[in-house]
Specification:
Blueprint: E1 7-10, E2 13-14, E3 20-21, E4 24-26, E5 36-40, H1 49-52, E6 66-68, H2 75-81, H3 94-106, H4 113-129, H5 142-145, H6 159-169, E7 173-177, E8 180-184, E9 203-207, H7 210-219, H8 223-235, E10 238-244, E11 267-271, H9 275-288, E12 295-299, E13 308-312, H10 318-325, E14 332-336, E15 358-362, E16 365-367, H11 370-374, E17 382-386, E18 389-391
Parallel strand pairs: 8-9, 9-10, 10-11, 11-12, 13-14, 14-15, 15-17, 16-18
Antiparallel strand pairs: 1-5, 2-3, 4-6, 7-8
Length: about 400
């Protein structure tokens, strides 16, 4: 095994035959070339699996191997950054960000603490140091930086490292559970895994309480941080958002619910909003929620604006209740253990909803004529009644 081997990267040169050798990578014991600009060592701050393989050559093999690494950007310069982050001497726009990410991908970066520190420095430099100095079009654009076929391959595995880096930079407490990202107010908090609905085919972003949601919402108030977080969710394939206000406290009055407007989300669940907090917060929520979401659930909460609704043990006003069911685009509704204004359900609750295809009622009071009249809704194909109380009027 080569114990002291070093890998020098040399400046580009053009051979006599006119073929451009972009980078000539040799494996030597000591770099001696005048045009040497970077040497990869075992203790390089950022480690790469591709380059580490040179350190494990058999003793019987030659002491050096020649090869060519083709690149359409200054590869050696970006490799130098992985040795010393202080080498940053450029504006960190989308192009430079893409070069760095391609380097991490193609050289199979080793995922460890050093990588997290490197990415955190990168984010800090791009988001804070340069925030005021760059025009909007030149700023850090993670989506465009990843817009390359090279990142569509399944072996690209720094997604979580990017997420760890971004959230740690803002001191956001979080954990991962089976691909789901949980945002916590404090470390080691318990969270409700039952909110991960097996019938919703998406990974989730779960806010463990309203305070945790408020903290991240305020962190993302700047457009560049908002866009980066959006694309990190894309990389993690997270398409469902859950807000569990388990302490049932009103959210800060200035919380805008901008996060829910992200086009990432195909599903939404809000849980444990009671009467005192629901009207103000959820009216604000309704201004930002998207209309093209596939699934929506309410668990101990007030209102939503999605195609699938699940309602259980609610404490809401009749106004909010009617607002839910008079929406024309809601397709699936579940109601459990609730009747608005202490009155039985009637067909009048649903007359404006022309999209409803499925209605499930569990332990709900209904009027006698409800069962016959509900099928007058032209698109309703399934009605499920369980433990319902039928009243004459």
């Amino acid at each position: 095994m080569c114990q002291h081997i070093q890998i020098p990267f040399n400046l580009p040169r053009r051979r006599e035959d006119g073929i451009s050798i972009v980078f000539d990578v040799d494996c030597w014991y000591e770099p001696r070339r005048e045009n040497h600009i970077f040497t990869y060592r075992k203790k390089n701050f950022i480690a790469f699996e591709v380059l580490n393989k040179f350190f494990y050559l058999k003793e019987s093999e030659d002491k050096h191997e020649n090869g060519i690494i083709g690149s359409d950007f200054e590869l050696a310069y970006f490799l130098k950054l992985t040795e010393n982050i202080a080498e940053f001497s450029f504006k960190l726009d989308t192009y430079y960000l893409k070069c760095i990410l391609i380097l991490l991908k193609c050289f199979e970066v080793v995922e460890n603490r050093s990588l997290l520190e490197f990415l955190q420095s990168l984010f800090f430099y791009g988001l804070v140091v340069q925030k005021e100095s760059l025009s909007r079009k030149d700023r850090f654009d993670l989506e465009n930086a990843f817009h390359s076929d090279i990142f569509k391959k399944p072996n690209f595995s720094i997604q979580k490292s990017l997420c760890y880096t971004f959230l740690n930079m803002f001191m956001i407490t979080f954990v991962f559970n089976d691909g789901n990202l949980i945002i916590l107010e404090k470390a080691n908090e318990l969270y409700d895994i039952l909110l991960f609905d097996k019938h919703i085919p998406y990974k989730n972003l779960l806010f463990n309480d309203g305070k945790a949601f408020s903290i991240l919402e305020k962190t993302l108030k700047y457009s560049n941080t908002f866009e980066i977080f959006k694309y990190i969710l894309n990389l993690l394939n997270i398409n469902s958002i859950i807000i569990d206000n388990k302490k049932s406290k009103p959210l800060d009055i200035d919380v805008q619910f901008n996060i829910v407007s992200l086009e990432n989300f195909k599903s939404f669940t809000i849980s444990n909003f009671n009467e005192s907090s629901s009207l103000q917060n959820l009216n604000q929520f309704s201004k930002h929620v998207r209309k093209d979401v596939e699934f929506g659930r309410l668990v101990n909460v007030s209102c939503t604006k999605y195609e699938k609704i699940k309602i259980r043990k609610l404490e809401i006003s009749p106004e909010v209740y009617n607002w839910i069911f008079q929406k024309t685009y809601i397709k699936v509704i579940y109601i459990e253990n609730y009747t608005p204004n202490d009155e039985p359900l009637t067909i009048n609750n649903f007359t404006n909803n022309i999209s409803l295809t499925k209605l499930a009622l569990i332990n709900v009071r209904i009027v006698l004529s409800f069962v016959n009249e509900i099928f007058k809704l032209q698109n309703l194909t399934k009605l499920s009644l369980e433990s319902c109380i039928v009243e004459p009027f």
